[in-house]
Amino acid sequence: MIVVMKLSATRDEVDAIMDRVINAGCRVHPIYGEERVVIGVVGDGTSLDKQQIGRMNGVENVVPISKPYKQASREFHPTNTVIQVGNVTIGGDEVVMMAGPCSVEGREALIETAFACQEMGAQILRGGAYKPRSSPYSFQGLGEEGLRYLAEAREATGMPVITEVMEPELVTLVADYVDILQIGARNMQNYALLKAVGRTNRPVLLKRGMSGTIEEWLMCAEYILSEGNTQVMLCERGIRTFETETRNTFDINAIPVIKHLSHLPIIADPSHGTGKWEYVGAVSKASVAAGADGVILEVHPQPERAWSDGRQSLKPKRYGELVGQMRVIAQAVGREIAYPSIGSLLRGDYNCRARTNHAKFSLNSSA
Ligand code: PEP
Ligand code: MN
After folding, report:
1. pTM: predicted TM-score of the whole model, two decimal places
2. Residues with C-beta less than 6 Å from any ligand 1 atom
3. How would you class 160 by CB atoms within 10 Å of its CB: exposed for 0-12, middle for 13-18, buried for 19 or more?
4. Neighbours of 228 (CB within 10 A)
5. Contact residues for 132 (Cβ-Cβ < 8 A; gap 6+)
6. What are phi and psi of 4, to 5 degrees?
7. Largest Cα span, the chain
8. H or E, element range at 248
């Protein structure tokens, strides 16, 4: 439930409500607005008498939350959650561009792709070091070595990095290297993992499970939030349907539905949502039009040689063209997509720039 305090409520009156709630074994999430204080209450509130709380000094009214997920609901938190990662703001006016290879394949390859993506308009670098593959015989990721390369790519480009974590035991290690923790579709309902990332102070991108309903997905976000981590963003990456032309069926509906039901940012992943690069552009543009707060895409300089998901990966040049088109759509719906920094554009084509910066970076790192 939510306790809405009167405009005239005093600090002591707010504290008295919070003490009462905490003594009943629940948790409080006070939101200090410009005008009034609103106290979110979560937990098993069977011993809390809502009418009695409603009669306490300073209380305007008590509103029950109708949804099974509480902290993830817009009722609980009417304003959009905004997450700051380095100099990138997620969930604000800008639609954030995240891009990079499916898997981290090596140091040089990653740094080169990172520079290419950045020059084409990406603000956050993606790359998997631990890969959830359908076959145990497929490439499983470079592990900690891949995390080191991600950290180096961040240092070289200044871009925050996101990577998937698959096991609770690895959460602290992965969180030491990267800026955003990704929970993959196959782990959406891995509750031990959700609790473990909920205990970190890193933003989390929670992908929708391939058979997860929107309500189940929001309940999974609730697991992370209930551990104290409020920096959660959701990612629509397609669901499994009877259709076989595409790898998954991207659920465009999920974007406005999540915006309506929740305050958490929603990111679109048309790469996994379609599985084929030729459909990625259309679905990315549709996602921006539908209100996505970000678009995460797989980009590889040589998709035919990618160690995973080459079929759905865009080449950097095509990615750059797409970002330009998404920018126009973003403006049409009252949003913006940042331009790449002037510095990166002045340095010419991406290969040249990647090589120059590589050389500089290698020198720095061996110094
Ligand atoms: C990925 O991001 O490369 C990935 C494995 O995604 P998903 O969990 O959505 O399949
Ligand atoms: Mn992938």
Report:
1. 0.91
2. 102, 128, 132, 184-186, 207, 237, 272
3. buried
4. 12
5. 164, 166, 184, 186, 187
6. -95, 120
7. 69
8. none
On whether the CB atoms of residues 258 and 266 are closer than 8 A, the answer is yes
CATH code of domain 2-63: 3.30.70.1140
Cα gap 224→183, rounded to integer Å: 11
Mutate to test the pocket of ligand 1, among 98, 131, 163, 164 (most ligand atoms within 8 A of CB): 164
Percent of the chain with pLDDT over 70: 93
pLDDT digits (tens, 9 = 90+) for 34-56: 889 999 998 887 788 889 999 99
Query: Ligand 1: distance of its center to the CA of 133 in Å?
Result: 9
227 sits in which H/E element? none
Ligand 1 pocket, mutate which of 98, 102, 205, 246 (most atoms under 8 A from CB): 102
List residues bridging with 124 in a β-sheet: 98
To the question of domain 83-357 being in CATH 3.30.590.10, the answer is no
Yes or no: say if 65 and 73 are a contact pair by the CB < 8 Å rule: yes
Q: Report the pLDDT value the prediction gives residue 362, as an integer from 0 to 100.
A: 54
Angle, helix 191-198 to helix 214-226, in steps of 10 degrees? 40
| CATH 3.30.70.1140 boundaries in the chain | 2-63
Phi, psi of 27 (to 5 degrees): -105, 150
Residue 140 CA to residue 103 CA, distance in Å, equals: 9
pLDDT in tens, 126-167: 999 999 999 999 999 999 999 999 999 999 999 999 999 999
